[in-house]
Give the backbone structure.
Amino acid sequence: MSAHHRQLSLQAAAALLIFSLAWPYYYLRAAAWDWALVAAAIGAAAFAAARLTRQPWWWQAIHLLFAPLLWAALQLQISPIWYLGMFMVLFLVFRGAASGQIPLYLSGASTAARLAALLPRQARVLDIGAGIGSLLLPLGRQRPDLHLNGIENAPLPWLAGWLRTRGKIKNWHWGDLWQHGLAPYQAVYCFLSPAPMAALWRKACQEMRPGSLFISKAFPVPGQVPESLAGPAGSPVDRLYIYRIPG
């Protein structure tokens, strides 16, 4: 079962549990259903299940809010075409979160400064999940000797990044990171989520040359000890985990 199917199953199980408890309660009292309360209870049950199964924090938030927001939206009596439009926009921006549990995170200039200090000269660098170019643009300004590449699979961030990096970053790819070869790169950087890290590390070890750098922001590779860390010790989200591909 895929990751998003598991999340749908969890939400469905929470709804089934609450309905099975609410139906006899309202039936025996001959009372009208309090749908706002039912929706809140479904959200609470789904959140509890997500916590117990150690889902990432964004999935916990989605499970908590999904049913209450659905009920609230139904009260507004908005035309269905607006829901379709909002869904399409969200999908185009957050496609990675739906398909691979990879949200859109922006790295920023402070991360670029730390990378600029540790990357070897003339290195060919790939930013996996390059978003709108928030890392590669400042990194290119600080280290013009680097050969910078980005890959992004969400259409709208990719388009925004392509427009921002035209004439500055030559290799701006749109595609699936799992289909993109890592062999040409001396350094690969990512700011993704805990979900893909183990598989991405295996891919890096299989394809990258020994001694190359694999750098992850905020999320370490499970079971691997980084060669070094960079960033403020009291801020895990800004920490860089630096690994060297073994021989």
Remarks:
- The beta strands are 124-128, 147-152, 171-174, 187-190, 213-217, 228-230, 240-244.
- Residues 28 and 137 are 64 Å apart (CA to CA).
